[in-house]
Amino acid sequence: MSTHEIPGEFPYTRGIYRDMYRSRLWSMRQYAGFGTAEESNQRYRYLLSQGITGLSVAFDLPTQMGMDSDHPLAAGEVGRVGVAICTLADMERLFDGIDLGKVSTSMTINSTAAILLALYVLVARRQGVEARRLNGTIQNDILKEYVARGTYIYPPRPAMRLITDIFAWAGETVPEWNTISISGYHIREAGSTCVQEVAFTLANAIAYVEAALGAGLRVDDFAPRLSFFFNVHNDFFEEVAKFRAARRLWAKIMHDRFGARNPKSLLLRFHAQTAGSTLTAQQPDVNLVRVSLQAMAAVLGGAQSLHTNSRDEALSLPAEESARLALRTQQVIAYETGVTRTADPLGGSEYVESLTDRIEKEAREYIERIDAMGGTLRVIESGYMQGEVQNAAYEAQRKMERGESVVAGVNRFQAEREQAIPMFRLSPEVEQQQVARLREVRAARNARLVGDRLKALGEAARGTENLMPHIVHCCEAYATVGEISDALRAVFGEYQEGR
């Protein structure tokens, strides 16, 4: 029970800061990115003008998978679920007119996180902003890709090397940057339970800490820059308790298991996003209610950063009006409800405290089971974690189909006539424009320099030196995301699930 615990003190059940939102509100981010860099830049500028306090970048699938926009497998996917980034030229256009020294940027990128971070640092350098001043986050969480999402490239072990290389390089070069956002969001979107979301996220985090220690890093040198990313579902009190339990469990893991002594190493700092999987194409305005309640649960649970989904996301990319309304939801909670006046407003509630204890206990039991099976990498390679999530998703779907769980507008309270709302439409010319620009860059760059730097990257990958300086050199010469990824594929190979 945490009724006698104090916010800002170990084990941080009631919040990682004593004053919480009384001294500083959470960062209000709106995840955005589509089409070309220019189109996404316009959306970022609009959102900044409407009051967001941090950027959050979505990349298209080819960029996430280490493919250039003219790759055969990229056809039909360029700019669809995020912005297409192939070279430094695209990244410069993406942040044109946005001072990277004054904005915090979160980038949802995993397999190619090292490349996108290198591009971001180079753009800042060209703006005259020192890398040491940069503030933001790369997701860089490859383990959950094998479990829940699938945008992996390399097998788990070389992929882990890239992550620890980023930890070491960023600690020296961009010390204020969050080098990983260990994500339960996608595990929950894939159908996990609340307890599984906490357990598997923290199990993945344990694996990252162990990998960094194995690479010779000291825990208190990198742990303060670890961050987390959680989902927020509809079970209001369970979600609030989930965040409290995760904070307490992580503080104990870092202190007892890894011997961390810097208080910042013990803090579970997290971004939250309302649950995309709960949004419905039927009666989309009802999604406003879902998102509002989920956002309130994230705030009462002590989030450091929050994205609120738009009402139309079950139908299309968010329209500008819908994105603005999603942001206004956060602003109403922050400025009109009064819930920011005290840390952990629900702390002491018998129900919330018992839920917190239960979630912590059951998540710890999962982690102990994973340890007994040989650790996170082993259970991912065996398919155990994936199977647990799939079974939970199947059971949830059966409950919905049997009417045991109610989804308003879907299995009860249907409307005779479905509501029509304006939807975002992506220009069909996006792919041709992006491919044409990519080819212009290839034609204008120093091809020999690019070849030499890609060769040096491949040679470094065969050895043990840190790969980040080589990736930066490649990006600086206008090597593409696909070319850099291919240089590493040639050494590391590609992961094939089930093989």
Give a structural overview.
The chain has 19 helices and nine strands. Strands 5-4-3-2-1-9-8-7-6 form a nine-stranded parallel sheet. The mean pLDDT is 96. The protein has a single domain (20-402), classed as TIM Barrel (Alpha-Beta Barrel). Helix content is 50%, strand content 8%. The chain has 499 residues and is an alpha/beta fold.
Low-confidence stretches: none
Number of strands: 9
> Secondary-structure element sequence?
EHEHHEHEHHEEHHHEHEHEHHHHHHHH
Please describe the biggest sheet, giving its number of strands, its sense, and whether it closes into a barrel: 9 strands, parallel
CATH-defined superfamily: Methylmalonyl-CoA mutase
Estimate nothing, just give the exact number of structural domains: 1
Q: Return Rg in Å.
A: 22 Å
Tertiary shape: globular
Determine the structural class based on helices, strands and strand pairing.
alpha/beta
What CATH calls the topology is: TIM Barrel
Provide a count of the helices: 19
Going across the biggest sheet, name each strand in turn. 5-4-3-2-1-9-8-7-6
Residue fraction in strands: 5-15%
What portion of residues is helical?
A: 40-55%
Rounded to the nearest angstrom, the distance between the terminal CA atoms is 45 Å
Mean pLDDT: 96
Level-2 CATH architecture: Alpha-Beta Barrel
